[in-house]
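Problem 12. The chain below contains 291 residues. Write out its predicted structure in token notation.
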Amino acid sequence: MTVFNLGSINLDLFYSVPHFPAPGETLTTLDHQRTLGGKGANQSIALAKAGAHTIHIGAINPADAWLTAQMQDDGVDITHIQSSDLATGHAIVAVNQEAENQILLCPGANRGIDMAAACAVLDQADKGDWALLQNETNGGDDFVAAAKARGLKLAYSAAPFEADIVARLLPVTDLLVVNEGEAAALADMLGRPAKEFGLAHLVITRGGDGADYFGEAGTLHQPALPVDPVDTTGAGDCFFGFFLAALANDQPVSAALADANAAAAIQVTRSGAGLAIPARGEVTAILATHN
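Solution.
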């Protein structure tokens, strides 16, 4: 099975600072990192590392081709990533000594995707394939319509979270993964508990308390593995990618939850997002240990 991911690709610039700058202040940073980011790219990497054939649909400025080269090295099909005259999407992240952060985000090329070309990629889809969408690019409605017209299942990573957009897409969504705060906000808006959303597959992640599943496989709870977290950045993307990969490859939901849970547990013991996503073998090993 193939997952077609319309997703963001970001250049993440991290700066460690002694404190957040005051208005007009010039501040010397303590450290600097330049990495691949974006929820879309992170999820494509997680999918590919989990063993799913993953076609990423997005856009970058050609000056930043090293970002897509890294995705390709991790197993992602980058054939349909577009070259854009806009700046590659990027985030400037300041992290202070208390691990708090301030972020400036420029969507750039992520909001300049040629949707006619993007939707045409779905002509390659076969029965049982999945389309994946987040909220960091333009063209979400066009992509969903094109995917459904071709009979694809829709996985929706509703972030950045906007309850009204999620509510509008619920009727055509086959898999929704949200955290407990997002699930509560959506339940308040719809006036019914999350387990009554009527989705084929709903997963609510709860951090150190694991994850809950509601859907065609019944009601399941997946406890979190006991680890000492170092950095939780991108853990949700890692979880989502491994869960969807298992589902797309016709694995039982219980196995998909175990895979995703183990992958995220490994991820949070490392620094970074895409670079911290574990390989398939690492997840298999930790599952064998804990089972």
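Discussion. The chain has a mean pLDDT of 93. Students who got a different answer should revisit the alignment rule from Section 12.3.
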